[in-house]
Amino acid sequence: MSAMAQMLRIGRGAARAAEAGRIRGWLLTVAAFLLAVGLGVLVLAQSSFDGRAQRSHERAIDWVPGARDANLIAQPVTDMVGTTAFQVVWLVPLRADAPLPPGLNRWPEPGEAVLSPALAEAGAGTAEHIGNRYGKSVGLIGTEGLQAPAELLAYARPAGGADDLDAESFQAVGFGGADASPFGEDANLPPPEQFYGALAGLVLLPVVLLITVAVRVGAVARDRRSRLLAVLGASARARACFTVGEAAAPVLAGTFLAALALAPALLTDVPLPIVDFRLYRPDATAAVPGLIVALLAAPVALLATAVLLQPRADGVQRSGARPTVRRGRLYRFAGIAFAPVLLVTVRGTELMADDMKLPFYVLGTALVFATLPAAVGMLCGGLGGQLARWGRRVGSSGGLIAGRRLATHPQATVRLVASLTLAIGLAAQAQLWGGVFGENSARALTTLDRIGSSVLTVDHPDSTRRLAAFEQSLPDGVETAVLRVATDDDTVTSTARLIGSCDVLKALNVPCTSAPVPIPGGGSDARLRELVSWSTYDTASVSAQRGATAGWRTTDDISVTLVLVNTAAPHEDLPIGQLKQLAYEHLGAAANVTSVGGFYLSAVGGLEAATRWIRLLAAAGMFVVALAAGLGAMGEFVRHGRELAPLGVLTGRWAVFGTTALWSLLLPSLLAVGIGAFTSVWLAAPIQIDRPTVISLASLAPTTLAALCGAIVLTAWGARASVRAARGWRPTAD
User: Fold this and answer.
1) How far apart are CA 388 and CA 405, in angstroms?
2) Which of 276, 482, 638, 719 has the smallest number of CB atoms closer than 10 Å to its CB?
């Protein structure tokens, strides 16, 4: 057997008997599993984005300027289900051989529509009237014509043919040309750079923390053994083989489990929880080469990390030198770098160009939380000397021992508090990005909560005949009004006038007269106040009068909005699905029925989708952090108990473990929680500029209290584990 193979075998045997060896084995297995899965997710995400882009290009509309070359009319519009926006493409073939869009096997007849499976499911059994909103539903769009299996999309052919569309502006030769214009659900999914940034910051950074904790569990005994091997003449290569032998079995086991976890994506479309997204199997199978590379790279990277974090031989060959000096310098450098990195991240993000703000912020945030534990460790090291002197002066053995430990072993403190600081950072970032909707979108949601769909607005082509047909088709209790707004560009003020029948005016609690009547402040009805506030700038005056809704036209200085009002039950929601169906039927494909503030509500769906992705990634990251905190702390507690065991045996006093744990575990944890909370609030500043405040010390109070409770539990657990380890301690020649 070669020397290298023998060192591998010896390392494997040493792992079983090592201090905290079982804990380290589990940690390495979990770390390898999560690293391999994380890299695999990166590969699958890239393949999914590539597949979506390819399918989006294949169905993109290739418009042409001249009618002579046109084969069809394709007019995409935006519609909504709830607060989720999606695309409806109105189609009219101009020739018998007009090309079909991908996913369709025949042209819908006039008055028919073809829906995506997800859209048909979203509208089934609801008041949305999806099944007949755009015409009679006659089938489903094939998966090859969708960006993703869960995409919301509809192709529809208007009953009135080309007369219902803007035929001059939307003539097309076909689909998938070089200069074609894509459409689809991209607004409801995070773009690739944002997804990768969130994945790196919320998942991969905690995985790196877990790897570091896993590699260094029981580090004191292994460092001593590594120095012994160096003294006995073992080369760096031999010691590396020994280290690889210790870690290889759990690392390979974790990688194998990761391969099993990724395998279902190659067999079927995999639904992801929380985000309402389904990974398309052909995209996953296209990523097989990348997945193989990821599964090979994960164990190599983890084993290389284990080797690199072992002490160097030259650290023991010099008299009195310690192998941890280099790592101590690295910790000090990270601790010193914390404040400058935080300052540069916060101030630098504000100065960056718009396209660089997010990458710069994500990188800076990752560096801040990577250096924060070292800063807390340095602070605890400085306080350790003061604590040791205080313990000596008052006769507190726990304070004396804890102070010496904090001052001489800052790396242990860093490993202890890293999980707490990262947990607070992850929670704050998830809360930050989940709550930053933008001022107008947040306002639109507030309006929707306040008045619901009891008042709707209708954008439509200027056609008196069509408007009359639409008004005649409205169900009982639904009537129309007109909000006419004249704007003075010089003073940026508006004059709003509501015009409608007496039933409408009375339903909105305003007088019914033939002459305009001023309504101070927009009146007492919240629906009218919201309607006016969304339609004007700085409103100079609001008035109301009885009158007809026909004949009003929008000009450069005057905007005219058709309003639907519930006169039968003023504060109940209108049947928006039915009204959209009637609008498309009588006003044409360009009609748009929305809630008040609906233009900004259309952006809410994408923001809510991004929020769900952040919650999913943050949940995964918090799970990793919990593993790192729990299993890593177990290893530290075992060492802590063995170090103090001789003192407990000699004195017969076990109270020293409680006071030592109080100072060496609770003090760093409290500092980590406090500094982490203040850091999270400051880091949120560049994102919250010109937006509603989401992150503050008050908003982080639940997270901070949970972390403090965790710190107290950690301290109690550490004291108990130390006592148990000490009671089982026996003198050995180690």
Assistant:
1) 9
2) 276
Statement: residue 28 has pLDDT above 60: yes
* Structure tokens belonging to residue 108: 């819908």
Cα separation of 40 and 255, whole Å?
Answer: 11
CA distance 396 to 403: 11
Residue 10: what pLDDT? 67
Q: Indicate the residue type of 694.
A: V
Longest Cα–Cα distance of the chain, Å, equals 106
Whether 287 has a pLDDT exceeding 90, the answer reads yes
pLDDT on residue 320: 42
Write down the H helix ranges in 178-218: 192-199, 205-216
- Of residues 651 and 135, more confidence is placed in 135
pTM of the predicted model, to two decimals? 0.76
Task: Report the C-alpha gap between 695 and 689 in whole angstroms.
Answer: 12
The residue among 531, 534, 535, 556 whose CA lies nearest residue 485 is 535
Q: What is the DSSP string of 504-516?
A: HHHHTT----SS-
> The tokens of 563 are what?
């309003």
Q: Which residue has the tokens 């006071």?
A: 659
CA-to-CA distance for 655 and 723, rounded, in angstroms?
A: 9
CA 432 – CA 687 distance, rounded (Å): 8
User: pLDDT of 611-647, one tens digit each?
Assistant: 777 778 877 877 787 777 666 666 666 666 666 666 6
Q: What is the mean pLDDT of residues 153-171?
A: 87
Distance between CA atoms of residues 680 and 657, nearest Å: 33
- DSSP-derived secondary structure letter, 481: E
- Closest to 119 (Cα-Cα) out of 137, 100, 101, 144: 137
Give the pLDDT confidence score for residue 321 in this predicted structure.
44
d(CA 542, CA 520): 7
Asked whether 440 and 692 are in contact (CB, 8 A), the reply is no
* 436 has pLDDT over 60: no
Judge residue 348's burial from the number of C-beta atoms within 10 Å of its C-beta, 0-12 exposed, 13-18 middle, 19 or more buried. Answer: middle
Interatomic CA distance for residues 123 and 115, integer angstroms: 10
DSSP state of 543: E
Q: Which residue has the tokens 């969130």?
A: 198
DSSP SS3 for 603: helix
Tokens of 541: 């005056």
